[in-house]
Amino acid sequence: MRCRLFIVLLLSSCAISQTPDPTPVDGRISGTVVNEDGKSVPGATVYVSEEASSLVDANSVVARTNVAGRFDFGRKLKHGVYEIYARKEKDGYPDPTSKFYQPLNFSPQKVQLFGDQPAEKVTVQLKEKAAILAGRVFDADTGQPLKAGVGFINLRTEAGSHSVLADGKFQALIPANTDVYVMVQEVDRDHAHWSLFTTKVTLKPGQKMDIEVPLFKTVTRSDTPE
After folding, report:
1. What does the DSSP 8-state code read for residue 21?
2. What span, in angstroms and rounded, lies between the C-alpha atoms of 25 and 117?
3. Is the pTM of this model over 0.70?
4. Is the dihedral of CA 138, 181, 125, 25 positive or negative?
5. 131-223 shares the fold of 20-125
6. Predicted confidence pLDDT, tens digits, the chain (226 residues)
7. Which CATH architecture fits 131-223?
8. Per-domain residue ranges for the chain?
9. Domain 20-125, architecture per CATH
């Protein structure tokens, strides 16, 4: 008797889990991506995700703007409330959901899809433009370029960090209007230990700065006592 009851409950559970989602999937979001001057932005990447899910969720739907800065997700979205944002690193607009770049007042734009075959046209404005930090990493004694790992920490958020590899030179987008700590993390050349380089920069949106990073060889690893 207990065995039969268990089987009945199991089958009921499977039937419920296999019940199709009754939420219609004919919603549509389209529109235009613009910059801070209101000009349309071609080649931008636009993301939408359901409000209850994470913005970086794997289920986010992605579209790209055409030459006129327009995008269209088509009629394939479930009815509900969506969050939408855009990015275009090539023009200096990084991912605003990243802890490294995220502005303190960041709040994704919301779009509601309800009713009969809902369709919404929206204008998505790119968030604050990042700054650009470029540099040259080299041996202070010989002037030879060095391979290095360069790390960046957003001192405003503390949890936000980013890193790039430098093969003699590097260039990276960094958040604007905030203090960013820069550190050469490691250099592996001739199995040597090198001096540590650190600095702090604060740049304006769109500003580019070039820095020189001279490193001094301190001791070879073979000279390090065991």
Report:
1. P
2. 9
3. yes
4. positive
5. yes
6. 555 544 444 445 554 445 555 778 999 999 999 999 999 999 999 999 998 665 555 568 999 999 999 999 999 999 999 999 999 999 999 999 888 998 777 888 999 999 999 999 999 999 889 999 999 999 999 999 999 999 999 998 766 899 999 999 999 999 999 999 999 977 666 667 888 999 999 999 999 999 999 999 886 555 555 5
7. Sandwich (2.60)
8. 20-125, 131-223
9. Sandwich (2.60)
